[in-house]
Amino acid sequence: KSMVNNRKQDIYKVTIWGSIVNFILLIFKCIAGILGHSSAMIADAVHSLSDFVTDVIVLFFVRISSKPADTTHKYGHGKFETLATTFIGFALLVVGIGIFIEGIENIIAVIKGKTLQAPGLIALVAATVSIILKELIYQYTIYYGKKLNSQTVVANAWHHRSDAFSSIGTLIGIAGAMFLGEKWRVLDPIAAVIVSLFILKVAIDILKNSLDELMEHSLSDVEEEEIKQIILSIDGVESPHHLRTRRIGNRVAIEVHIRMNGNMILTKAHQITTEVEQQLKLRFGENTHIGIHAEPIK
Q1: Is residue 82 scored above 80 in pLDDT?
Q2: pTM of the model as a whole
Q3: In the 8-state DSSP scheme, what is residue 115?
Q4: Residue 173: which of 161, 190, 197, 195 has the closest Cα?
């Protein structure tokens, strides 16, 4: 229980630090985008807003997903974490599409003869600060996401990095629009469009993984083969079959049939199946749900 609480506290700590950075950047970018007349920076500010919102979602859902199993959720509440990851993916997708559309509209306006206003220095400074802060918070978050085996924290880390990518594109666009002359001001919305494609790629990857989990997608063929080999490494066990696997948040569920000597006493059979469980938990984690159905060797 203390391990679960420690994990929850670590996820909270990582996410709260990210949300503080996001909130500061959100305000700064918004002011810089308006005062600096930069559509790319305003789009970047919207992206930071989506980051801040997803931080709040993570904090809310991790509290639910870390609750122990109860009478109505016998497999625990891990799927709430997957649901949070799905929301993050959708948030990224919506923001990416919004930035893309706005950028295209500005590019079309330039083609039709509109002269865009040159971005101001404050927008350039904001983009630079954003790149540095977001890359630092990405490194911090991805480290803990992998350490804690939390798909939600990893997804949130990529949301941070997508914001850093967004700011790199914004920086290039703003710098070009500022220093290359009037006709190059179109670089500002072009940067916004390029950035949106990065964001959409990350969003689609996150959504694919989380939706696979919600749809009870099995573990990979490599992982299932590894499960069979672990089972076969136990003396007295043969023919693992009817293997079914899935993910429940950061946990794995494994159900399998095995064959043993039909004349074996029940105590010995229990001892062997317990050994199978222990070896699988060593590989996939102490909270792995394991169901084993024993059959006599044919």
Answers
A1: no
A2: 0.61
A3: P
A4: 190
